[in-house]
Amino acid sequence: MAKKFQYRLEPLLKLKSYNSTIARTELTNAINERMNKEEEIENITIHRKSLNNMEVISMNVSKMQHLHYFKQSLEDQKKKLSEEKEVLAEKEKVKQSKYNIAMQEEKVLAKLKEKKIEDHKKRLNLEEQKELDEIGLRIKLRQNEL
Q1: Taking a C-beta distance cutoff of 8 angstroms, is the pair 103, 20 a contact?
Q2: Are 38 and 117 in contact (CB under 8 A)?
Q3: What is the H or E stretch that residue 67 is in?
Q4: C-alpha angle 78/79/85, rounded to 5°?
Q5: What percent of the chain is helix, strand and coil (3-state, nearest 5)?
Q6: Element containing residue 4 per DSSP (H, E)
Q7: Of 20, 44, 27, nearest to 108 (Cα)?
Q8: Contact 27, 96 (CB under 8 A)
């Protein structure tokens, strides 16, 4: 009877698979955070452009000052968000490399498992062929005896 294949490193393969899933989730979260920052920066840019298109002719001096300070605060906020985006981009790179390493480790173990399965199949085929040869030899010996 053929032996069932049992991969001794299966728990390790499952652990590596779990680690790569976690790394992929962390990478996805990092990408989403960076994209949200980019969207916030874009919204500020659009808002700033709309303020630039306002008519300042009918405004008094204090309103113009408030508008100027508001535009300046938008620029400061945009710079701050850009710096945060750069930090998030660096974190994303780190998480990308962690994900790549985790996937590579998982693939190595998966390929090793596939190789072990192939070796197991070859061994089973050899055993089966050996049994068939023995049966054939017995049949031939019986025919010679008769």
Answers
A1: yes
A2: no
A3: helix 61-145
A4: 85
A5: 90, 0, 10
A6: none
A7: 20
A8: yes
HSE at residue 37, side-chain half, CA atoms within 13 A, is: 19
Half-sphere exposure of 15 (CA within 13 A, CB side): 4
Secondary structure (3-state) at 9? coil
What three-state secondary structure class fits 132? helix
**What DSSP assignment string belongs to 85-141?**
HHHHHHHHHHHHHHHHHHHHHHHHHHHHHHHHHHHHHHHHHHHHHHHHHHHHHHHHH
Contact 41/85 with Cβ under 8 angstroms? yes
Using DSSP's 3-state secondary structure scheme, residue 95 falls into helix
Question: Which residues of 3-90 form beta strands (DSSP E)?
Answer: none
Per-residue pLDDT of the chain (146 residues; tens, 9 = 90+): 567 888 888 999 999 999 999 999 999 999 999 999 999 999 999 999 888 887 777 778 888 888 889 999 999 999 999 999 999 999 999 999 999 999 999 999 999 999 999 999 999 999 999 999 999 988 988 888 86
